[in-house]
Design brief:
It contains nine helices and 13 strands. α1 runs parallel beside α2, α5 runs antiparallel to α9 and α7 packs across α9. It is globular. α4 links the parallel β4 and β5. The protein is α/β, with parallel strands linked by helices. The protein has a seven-stranded mixed beta sheet with strand order 12-11-7-10-9-8-13. Strands 3-2-1-4-5-6 form a six-stranded parallel beta sheet, sandwiched between helices. The chain starts with a strand and ends with a strand. It folds into two domains: 141 residues, Rossmann fold (3-Layer(aba) Sandwich), CATH 3.40.50; 120 residues, Dihydrodipicolinate Reductase, domain 2 (2-Layer Sandwich), CATH 3.30.360.10.
């Protein structure tokens, strides 16, 4: 299977490419084409690290030459056009995080995937780690949960959203039905209180949080879970190829849309200083 990579600004381009071409983690699948739509100057480095043999001048040229695609551009607003190009051509596509700039774009990608029966897998690869179902079960009875990870609220690739999307993706994988959010920033720390029917989840990011952690109340004491993300890129690729083989897992698109809505509500709360209803986004 010929895999094309759209974008090379993100280190994910060479990570995914090397997993396919050097480590060969998926039998019969190789990264054969790349298109440097975002940062051409970085292309020689990615080609060396990932051993990708073919360079395309445009995303259209790439899509016509491959069987499936990975969209690794950093900016969320670029994802719908490239995903649409793939889906309308009948080519399965993996879309990197942040999945979409807003819920309208997220729903459009999900609609195209469903209507054309073309697999679309997306978002933070943390969500494909085997610990996530275990975490969901372990946290199901907790009334208060703190989820924390690193993020730069001033990232040039979309501010808080670029790394903050990891936490909203995880929250949407672990819990259902976010209702309201209040977010505030103090220096480099962003804290978001998310209200659910049965619990309150605090999403917190800062430069000090180098690994994903969940702190929860259980039987009257606090427990800390730490996520080992060393295999997250491989797990994301494996999930994508399972979807190519078996179809998209039930609820995957709904989870992605829920995460985008939550992230949009967080950003609006940060902007206005006011609580926001998630359903409004």
């Amino acid at each position: 299977m010929r895999i094309g990579i759209i974008g090379c600004q993100s280190k994910h381009a060479e990570f995914f490419g090397a997993l396919l071409n050097r480590e060969r983690i998926v039998d019969g699948a190789r990264a054969t084409h790349i298109c440097a739509v975002d940062e051409p100057a970085r292309l020689p480095y990615v080609l060396e690290k990932a051993e990708i043999p073919n360079v395309c001048e445009s995303a259209e040229e790439l899509v016509s030459a491959i069987d499936a695609a990975l969209v690794t551009t950093r900016r969320a607003e670029t994802h719908l056009p490239y995903a649409r190009l793939c889906l309308e051509a009948g080519k399965p596509v993996f879309v990197d995080k942040p999945f979409a700039a807003n819920s309208r774009e997220a729903k459009e990608m999900a609609r195209l995937s469903a209507e054309r029966s073309v697999p679309l897998i997306a978002g933070s690869t943390f969500c494909f780690l085997p610990e996530i179902p275990e975490w969901r079960a372990a946290l199901s009875e907790s009334k208060t949960v703190l989820l924390r990870y690193w993020a730069d609220p001033d990232s040039p690739f979309g501010g808080f959203s670029f790394y903050g999307s990891h936490l909203t993706d995880l929250a949407s994988a672990l819990f259902d039905g976010a209702r309201r959010v209040f977010a505030a920033r103090t220096g480099e720390v962003v804290s978001c209180v998310v209200e659910y029917d049965k619990r309150q989840v605090i999403l917190q990011t800062s430069a000090q949080h180098g690994a994903v952690e969940a702190v929860c109340d259980k039987e009257g004491s606090l427990h800390t879970l730490r996520l080992d993300d060393a295999s997250c890129y491989a797990r994301g690729l494996e999930a994508f190829f399972r979807a190519v083989r078996d179809g998209v897992p039930d609820g995957h698109h709904d989870r992605l849309i829920a995460s985008v809505r939550l992230l949009s509500a967080v950003n609006e709360s940060l902007r206005t200083g006011l609580p926001q209803r998630v359903e409004d986004f």
